[in-house]
Each structure stands twice: as structure tokens, then as C-alpha cells.
Amino acid sequence: MTAKVVTVTSGKGGVGKTTSVANIAVALAARGQKVTCIDGDIGLRNLDVVMGLENRIVYDLVDVVEGRCRLRQAMIRDKRLPELYLIPAAQTRDKTAVSPSDMVRLCDELRQEVDWVLIDSPAGIERGFKNSIAAADKVLVMTNPEISAVRDADRVVGLLDAEEKGPASLVINRLNPIMVKRGDMLSVEDVLDLLAIDLIGIVPEDENVLVASNKGQPLALDPKSRAGHAFDNIARRLLGEQVPFMDLDTSGLWQRLLGRK
Amino acid sequence: MSIFGRRKSANSAKERLQLVLIHDRTDLNPAELEALKDDLIATISRHVEIEPSGVVINVAQDGRAQRLVADIPLRSTNRRRR
Lengths: 261, 82
Known about the structure:
The structure holds two protein chains of two kinds. By secondary structure, chain A is α/β, with parallel strands linked by helices. Chain A has helices at about 15-30, 45-50, 60-65, 70-75, 100-110, 125-135, 145-160, 175-180, 190-195, 210-215, 225-240, 250-255; strands at about 5-10, 35-40, 75, 85, 115-120, 140-145, 170-175, 200-205. Chain A has an eight-stranded mixed sheet with strand order 3-4-2-5-1-6-7-8, sandwiched between helices. The longest helix of chain A is centred in the middle third of the chain and has 16 residues, at about 145-160. Chain B has a two-stranded antiparallel ribbon. The chains are: A alpha/beta, B alpha+beta.
């Protein structure tokens, strides 16, 4: 096996990186892929709780890097999907406990073991970000249709180009089609005009995302959830499938009611 | 403007971002652009007569690349030399 290493990053915090990593990982694993997620947010770990694996942590990323355990021992197996693993971040250390070259070495070892390595980058553009992109073959930049998130995404896209990690692919998360229709939210086209990079996913705002993380069960497996479906589409695009973007237009119903369609 | 006279907030977000991103990407703020324009006018005027009031300098977007576009009207030679 030679895994592909994919890093999800954003610049701004709180746009949904951790949720996306958990969901894309679950979607890939449900499609028969062997996947390992790495929580790159040392000191502020969260991917473990979103995936519902917080009670099973024995070793973490820093333990592997510092040689206190073997790589295999730090890989926590998911409860539902046998081919899905998590390497958690250390909670009591900081970003300097790991270097970009540590991440390259670790990922090179993982490449032999799995099909996909997904790295959840911390917010910001400092050490944690640099660690998280060091080994990446592909970087997904996540944003919300919101002015500060788009600005920060642009900055990160520029930095990725400078580090020769580009071209990045864009995920627009928490799109509210009703607000877009009303002219009170940047549309997908607006964000693409501004950032001028390739799009790999549009995830609609969906209350089920919060419900799922409350329970520690990523919703990519739930066929009723629109966000879950959108994350599954991203997984399929990573696998090389041509998947059309979801139709989020809300006008259909009204036009039918008004008999104009 | 919408039909209700209220400006759509998404449009102002986009316009504001367009300006902010030019600055973020190039490190060129409006004051510096103005100074650049004055320098250009002074330099070009040493070689050819121009219409300083008609000079327009803008940063144009081409994908993720920026381009400095200067439109500099020349003064007609017919009018200058009788």
C-alpha cells in the first residue's frame, strides 16, 4: 500500500475542520478504504471526541514521535469500522513537541500500512499548521461563506502555494441556501471568484452535525443527512470519481407552488 | 440595490473582500498605490508628455495572480508643436 496523505486546514478556527476529517474518514472507510486520521492539534485535541474514541486513548502522537511506543500501539481502532484508525494528539504538550520532519517520517511509515492518512490541522499558520502540511500530498482548505473565514482561507492558499503544497482544493462548509437566496450570504460562486481555486466540496448547514458530534458518531453513514451526504461526496471525489455538486437551490418548491416551473 | 432599496449584505461582503484580498496578497495599500502613481507620472513625464489627470492605476485579478494595470494618456504632439 502507498497511502495518500491529505491535510485539512483553514486558517480560521471553528469552520469545521475536525468534523470534516472525521466524516471524510468515516466515508472513505465505509467504502472499503483503510484510513488513519491524525489529530494535528497538539494541546487542544478534539478529533477523539468527535469520533467517539476518547475513552480508548493510551498513547498519542507525541509518544510515537518520542519513541515511547510503536506506531501501531498509538493507532486506535474505530468501534464501527474495522479499517479506520485514529492517532490522537497529546493533550499536555504543545506544538513544538513535533517537527515537520517528524511528521514526514511518521507519514512515510504509515504510507505502507493504509490507503489514506487524513491530518486534522490546527487553526492558524504557525508550527501546528506547518507540521500538518509537511507530509501532505493534497491539502483541502476549508472555509465558511463568511468574510473572515474567506480572508483567512486566501492567506492559507497563498502560503500553500509558497510551500509548493498547492494547488489546494476548497471545501465550503455551512452553506445556508436560504440565506444565499436572500442575498445575505456569500454564494459558492462568490467564494470561488474570490479565492480562485478548485472546489472539492460544498457542505450545507445541518443541525445533524452537532447531534452527531454530541453522540460521537460521525454522520457520513446517515443517508438522511445532507451534510453527511456532502462529506461522502468529498470522499468519492478523493477516490477519483466524478460526482456532481449537490443541488442546494431552494427555489424549486416555491416555483412549483406558484406554478411557474 | 434590491427592489426594497436595501443593499444585499452578500454583495458588500464580496466587494469588501475583493479589496482586502488585493492588499493581503500584494502588500499594496491604497496610499502606496497613490504614491506609486505619482512616481510613475514623474518618471514617464521625463520622456514623454502625458495627461496627469487621466492616469489610472489599478490592480487587476487574473485567477490568483495580480497584475498592475496602468492607463496613461499621452498628450497629442499635434497640439504641442504648431
